[in-house]
Each structure stands twice: as C-alpha cells, then as structure tokens.
Amino acid sequence: MWSDPAAAAALGSRDLATILRAYRAANGLSQEALAALLGYDKSYVAMIETRRRMPGDVAGRRHIARALGLPFHLLGVTDPDDADFAALVQFGDSVIRLAEIARQSGRVVEAVNELWPLAARLEARAADGRLERDTLYLLASARLALGVSLGTVLPEERLPGAAAWTGKALVLARHLDDDDFFANTLRMHGNELRKAGRLHAAVARLQHAAAVSTTAAGHGAALALLARAAGEAGSPTQFADAIDGCRQRLDAAAGNELLLHPFTLREIHARGLLALNRPHEALQVFNTAAGEPAAPQWHVIERVTAGEVLVATGEHAGAEEALAAAIATAEQRRLPHQLQRAVRAARQGRLPAIVDAGRLALQRLRGLLSPVA
After folding, report:
1. Which of 148, 153, 282, 371 lies in disulfide reach of 274, CB 3.0 to 4.6 Å?
2. Distance, C-alpha 190 to centroid of its chain
3. pLDDT digits (tens, 9 = 90+) for 43-62
C-alpha cells in the first residue's frame, strides 16, 4: 500500500494522525475497525487522528508501528533490526550495480550470490509491510536483477522461476512513477517469459516496452528482444519489422546498449530466421562480419545458434565444431540453458559424441548449481 503516492506522502510527514488516516483510507477501515486492530477504544483513535491525544511512550508507538507494519523510525522510535536494515539499504544500490557488472562479465553465479541475501532481506521486510517508497524501488530493482541473473544460470525447466521474479518486479514498477525503470522492467520480464516458453505473453510485454521506452537505446533494446520473441512465436512480419528497427537504431549509434551490438543482433537475426524455418538465410547472416561479442556469454549463445543453423543446413562437420566449443565454454561460464540447447542441436544433427559431452557437462553443472538456486 505504501507505493501509493498519497500513502507515501503521509509516511513522509511522520505525523501519526496523518498516517492513521491514510492507513484507514488505503484499507477501507472505519475508526472502529482500526481501533480493534490496535486494541484501542474507538474514542482514543479518534483523539489521535484529531491530534487531541498522542501516545508519547516508546512502547505505545512501537505497538502501533508493529500492528500497522510501519517502519519504526517514522514514529520516532527504534527497532533492533532498524540499524542493520538501514546499512543494508545504504549499500543496496551498489550491490545491484556490482551484480549487474558481474552478470554481464560472465560471472553469473557470483551475481546471484550477491543479490539473493539482499532480495531475501527486502522481501522479509516487505512481508511485514515495513518498506517506504524509496525502499520499494530498491526491492523492485533487486527482484529484477535477481530474476535476470537466474534466467541466465538456471536450466530450462526452472526458468519460470526467473520469470516469476521479474514479474514481481513489474508489479512494483507499475506504481513507482519512473518511466525508464518501468520500460526496462517490461523488457526484462518479456525476455524471461520468452525463455520460459510463454511466447505470446512475451511478445505483448515487449511490444509494450517498445511503446513506452523513453530513450533511443531502450527502444532499440526492446525491439531486439521483440525480434527474438516474434521469431520464436512464428510471426515473420513482426520479426522483420523489429529487426529493421534494430538496424536503424544501430546505424544511428543510439548508445552502448548491450543488445544494440553487431554481434548480438547477428545472433538474434540468425536465430529468428532459423525459428521461422529459413535456415539457409540464417547461414547467410552468419557469413557477415560482426566483430567481438559485447559480453562473454554472447559468444556461447552465438556458437550454439551457429551449431543449430549448421545442423539445419546439413553442415555437420561445422556444427560439431561449433557445438563442441559452445559446450566447453558454457560449462566454464555455468550456463546450463545453453548446454541444453547444444544437446538438442546435437541430437537433431545425430552427433552422439557431442550429445554425450553436453549431457556430462550439464550433469556436472547441475551438481554445482543446485545449492545456489
């Protein structure tokens, strides 16, 4: 309830009378119902709301804060947990930024291990109703970062869990009056839905993200993810339009957005064509130069896609080489989802040695990752 601007303003006033009235309005409570919740007489609540009485003792203020799920410091009292939590919040933004750097550098498990304690502590505080508006923003950011990191490190059968975290971030992002954050959350949630196999929902989120993006780079990133989802959903016109939009943004040098990179867009373009059953066109795309990947994991993703394309065009020797390289690097980077893609491609290409290598790598990786998620 405290994400509502009126309620947030009431908290910011630190005036108990204002806070009680806002609490009743948000929850549809009468003074009598609020009195019952607090264990007070209705007349006493009425006097607090009209500022004729004010509980001055620490115990009384703590009781009200605990009963209503209010941060204790707003009523001028302390809680043993407040100091530790304040320190956590102070460094929360830095934790999220460093985790994002780790993820983009290929150290995804490290990112998850950094984010999990922060998210868990914030979730526990939220469950008590004791988060202010600014801290709700931190919670939404932590949910989003954790979901995206889990979407990189989890195997396919557990990817809905990553989408659930980004979906929880979106619930808050809708109420935080930050257009850039809302658009980014839509993009990331749409991509996690795609990876979890919910293609129509993914396309809808990504279309929305493209429509509300306020920057050229954000719009281009939404189009890149939309191209991937549209290809997998079997929508050739939507796929082609999104790819064209990405090219225009890339040619205009819209920014350093990871998805607006020649290497990344080449992989997205080729995989979309393959999904649309146009493997020879996909192979032609791979024959164009694209430089080095913007992030280490994209080399793995690209090698798996190359293997899939080569299998589909009958180039089995090249497919074997590409998939073997992908498997070795995917295990090193701890990317089980990419290992699963490589194994499927190898099965389709009847490459038993590659299938066995991928399955063994996946088995080893599952053992390493099971305590993390």
Report:
1. 282
2. 9
3. 999 999 998 888 877 888 88
| Alpha carbon distance 66, 38 (integer Å) | 10
Written as one string, the DSSP assignment of 279-304 is HHHHHHHHTS---S-SSHHHHHHHHH
Distance of alpha carbon 180 from alpha carbon 224, whole angstroms = 17
Residue that the structure tokens 């304040």 belong to = 86
Q: Which of helix, strand or coil describes residue 330?
A: helix
Identity of residue 134: D
CB 154 within 8 Å of CB 166: no
Tally the C-alpha atoms within 13 A of residue 248's C-alpha that lie toward its C-beta.
Answer: 10
Give dist(CA 210, CA 153) in Å, integer. Answer: 26
Please give the Cα distance from 151 to 167 (Å, whole number): 12
Cβ-based neighbour number of residue 353 at 10 Å: 11
CB atoms within 10 A of CB 313: 15
- Long-range contacts formed by 116-122: CB under 8 A, 24+ apart: 116/146, 118/88, 118/92, 118/142, 119/143, 119/146, 119/165, 121/85, 121/88, 122/88, 122/92
For 60-98, letters b (16+ CB in 10 Å) and e give: ebbbbbeebbbbbebbebeeeeeeebeebbeebeebbee
pLDDT number for residue 3: 57
Measured CA to CA, the distance from residue 82 to residue 125 in angstroms comes to 10
Given a contact cutoff of 8 angstroms between Cβ atoms, the answer to whether 50 and 80 are in contact is: no
The CA distance from 56 to 62, in Å, is 11
Question: Is the separation of the CB atoms in 342 and 323 below 8 Å?
Answer: yes
Phi, psi of 265 (to 5 degrees): -70, -30
Residue identified by tokens 């100091």 is 83
Encoded tokens for 323: 């998939």
Could you read off the pLDDT of 264-285 as tens digits, one per residue? Answer: 999 999 999 999 999 999 999 9
